[in-house]
Amino acid sequence: MEIIKGKSAFAAIAVGKIAVYKKEDQPIKKRRTEDPEGEIARFRKAKEEAADQLQKLYEKALREVGEAGAMIFKAHQMMLDDGEYQDCVQHMIQTRKVNAEYAVGTAGEHFANIFAAMDDAYMKERAADIKDISERVIRNLIGKGRQDRDFTGPVIVVADDLAPSETVQLDKDKVLAFVTSRGSVYSHTAILARTMNIPAIVNTGIDLEQDLDGKEAAVDGVRGILYLDPTLEVLEEMKKRREEEQQKKELLLELRGKETVTLDGKRIKLYANIGSVSDIAGVLKNDASGIGLFRSEFLYLEKKDYPTEDEQLAAYKTVLENMGGKKVIIRTLDIGADKQIDYFHMEKEENPAMGCRAIRICLERKDIFKTQLRALYRASAFGNLSIMFPMIISVKEVDEILEIVEEVKNELREEGIAMGEAELGIMIETPAAVMVSDELAKKVDFFSIGTNDLTQYTLAIDRGNAKLDRYYDAHHPAVLRMIQMTVENAHKHGIRAGICGELASDMELTETFLAMGVDELSVAPSYILGLRKKIREIKIKA
Ligand code: PEP
Ligand code: MG
Questions:
Q1: What is the CATH code for 2-23+147-229?
Q2: Which of 188, 362, 476, 491 is catalytic?
Q3: What is the pTM of this model?
Q4: What is the 3-state secondary structure of 476-519?
Q5: pLDDT tens per residue, range 69-83
Q6: Is the CB of 448 within 6 Å of ligand 1?
Q7: Tell me: the pLDDT tens digits for 350-378?
Q8: Fold of the domain built from segment(s) 36-141
């Protein structure tokens, strides 16, 4: 047995076999073949496999995000079946006597260039799709399948590091745990693991060159330990602790339907953080009073192209309808920094955490922002929606946002589209926003404090840099005073202040937050009931 230590990102236990997740940047090698017919047969087989994979993805997306969101996989199936594309690959194999991988890659490039050169913006964007399907066929040819998404059974995913876009695309039903060699506990990948209720250890320094695929392992996410080839004794201990964990969870289930109220009668709104429609099951199971943060950017990260207004509407509507009238706070697109999306074609930045991210992108690229706002307002007819804007630093920005919101609402009214009421709020996650929170409070209906970024920007510590984890102290008095100031300014102007950053679930601070007057806490679904228990045991007034 080998013991590897890292840092706990989500404290739970898993036992199973390892599947190593490798990045996909293997260059395609050109080989000469003496058997073109054999290569063509390989291409046809890989193409059939790709068609099956796309059908499965279509069915999965249909269940999770509805027809509009699933259509992209139908479109990919049609492109894959296109006669010209197939003829081009087969012709190249036959005449140039090259291997199938090379022919598929070259044909993919060729068609992508044709699309990219078109005037029509929609057709231009299809270049990414044709590349995507070619890569899928190549992966099948190499024999690695769609390694990033299609694990054959439930596995412990071991990776060097996982970008948020890679994490969201993993098939969650087949992931027992995440273990990464690098990565910080404050990164969005760690946050995703917590939201999805998946045991996770980061920063283990594990060497991926060793033969890990298929190896038995045990993940102790509580202590941040990975056991390779665990002994019977370790397996027994894990089993016992997992049963204890399960019993604790079952006891907590008794708190479903109970109020989140302190001993002296203060009622707290206890909401859930989600990243996708599929997280709703956990929200309902754990009886959250609503959704305090839907990180809508994960809808964009899951995709190869901008989600359309209808695709977004389908996702937002599903969430609102499933929450049956409970509050749902959807945050507008917050990409940039560690959440990078290829199809946005953002310029490379020296310092992305302080660069063009979140609301800054939306105000620069109004078309993208307006598409999302249109989808949100159309969805507002189906439930209790609030819209929240990230990374605010000034009153001027909020004025600009409110103007765009009015523009969108007027357009929808003119089109005769039904809308509900939506409260508007902002995230307080920069020191600048805290310092002008008295002014900001006059403009919006609520504040939600993003302690992850607020800590990063207050302490000048990159939250994604694991080497700095020991300096990333969210309990720092400067951070706590910022929270206090925000809550006071919110209340002075009669609006609510909640916390939706990771600190909201830190039970060492629950009493402090309640004493400060925090109205709402929003946490990963699996933390809801434990926090409810804690709040019900607190007396704020001594
Ligand atoms: C935060 O910064 O605390 C927050 C909730 O937003 P994110 O973690 O997505 O940046
Ligand atoms: Mg943030």
A1: 3.50.30.10
A2: 188
A3: 0.77
A4: CHHHHHHHHHHHHHHHHCCCEEEECCHHHHCCCCHHHHHHHCCC
A5: 677 778 888 888 898
A6: no
A7: 899 999 999 999 999 999 999 999 999 99
A8: Enzyme I; Chain A, domain 2 (1.10.274)
